Amino acid sequence: MMDADRPGEARVHRSHRHLACALAAAFALGCQAGSDPSARDDSPPDTLDAMSAPDTPHEAWPPDPGIPDPGPADARMPDADSELAMADALVDAPIPDAPDVPATLPRISGTYDVASTFRLASGLAHGYGLVLSALIELVADPGRRLLTWWCDPSTADWNPPERFCAYLFQDPDHPSTRELTPIGILVADLIDARHLGMLPDACMPWLPGPDTPTATLGSDFGAVLNRLEFRATMACGTGAGDAEAASGSACDATWHAVEARLAFCGACNLAAPATCNAALSLATLPGIEAPIRTAFAVQMTPGPALAIADHPMDLPVGALMAAVIDRLALPGLFGTGQDGLPAVDGLDRYLGALLGGRACLNDGTCCTVFAEDVVARANADDGLTRIGVEGSCDAMIQRIPEEFHDALRALDAPGTTFRLGTPAGEPCALADLDADGTVDRMGSPAAPCAWNAVLTVDGHPGQVPASFLGVRQ
Fold first, then answer.
1. Distance between CA atoms of 343 and 286, rounded to whole angstroms?
2. Residue 68: φ, ψ to 5°
3. Is 265 in contact with 88 (CB distance < 8 Å)?
4. In a domain, 97, yes or no
5. Is residue 98 part of a domain?
6. Per the structure, how many domains does the chain have?
7. Where would you tag: which of 83, 114, 121, 264 has the fewest CB atoms within 10 A of its CB?
């Protein structure tokens, strides 16, 4: 976990740099193994910036046990429509006459529900962004991408199965998706068929192409990883009003949940966005295991508006991204288990389901199923054996997720920092909806407040596009 108060810059281990490049090279993403990702262009990969994915999961999403039942809809953090309706009702309510008093700024006082949207993946330095892009490419084109990764000799700490890879690629020392053997094409098609069989109905027809729903899978998956909403409770003590504007006031926030919008293949009921969303309690996530608390100074300005001082947030980005991938994004697209089949709730289980189907996940026979299918379909009599294929498969399913999660954990090394505050000269607009002298709302659905959020990894800062909206409890 990172520590913003620790001096010095700790360097991410060279093997993690190598893995980022190896994943990128294996998936033809343009990074050479052994190169320094930090020296490259830090602009985020295009697939991570696909922000406009329409949405809806194909199964009912089971509630996260670490998040208390929010109760009836009208008791929850309001969405855009209900929040505006609340504002209209408050504005239209009659306000009794009051004696003339000098104009003052409203107080920022009490407790506020705050929803912040962070596009964390956009703030990752280039090498780490490529690690996520490798996963996105796998989801978009699983058969050929997985075989290339499987047989890539540049992958860190991985010895490709030479005999098996020789059956798949014309040049197994330099595997390329464009140079598969007939058996390689057969195996890639088998993996693609398993992949298509797991997709929700919204992603049909199954034939890939530029005008079909499946063509957006990669960008849709990337959008899930790159648009995360954090729920927090913000509390301010005595209030920052006119008398305190010069000196400011202290507030604190407790960040307790992260929510992702699961929008795949253009299907989501926009009138009921809760059907598209799934949340995780931060207290249940390995590597986090508790709400995250921050403290900061605030300053009232005419408008009225609120300036929030720059301050650290101890956010383990790698642990967070791993949990979002394993517990939200992958099961959201490939199966939560509510349909009676095993849940695809982890990268290892996704790889197993790609090779043997979801049914084999419970008894751990996915590589056996895969090996039997490959040998039977290849009808090979020149050495391609079930035992050889199964052994290679078992090793790959174990190793790829380990390497991937090691790369994400490197994001949480000492020296990684995440800081946020309102941008200089751009305080958050406030509203006293019932004219009682206390702020009721920070920002609005039409114009949310901006965060100036910076994620620094291995000494390289990245700007994280971010915004927030707050409503007084």
1. 19
2. -60, 150
3. no
4. no
5. no
6. 1
7. 83
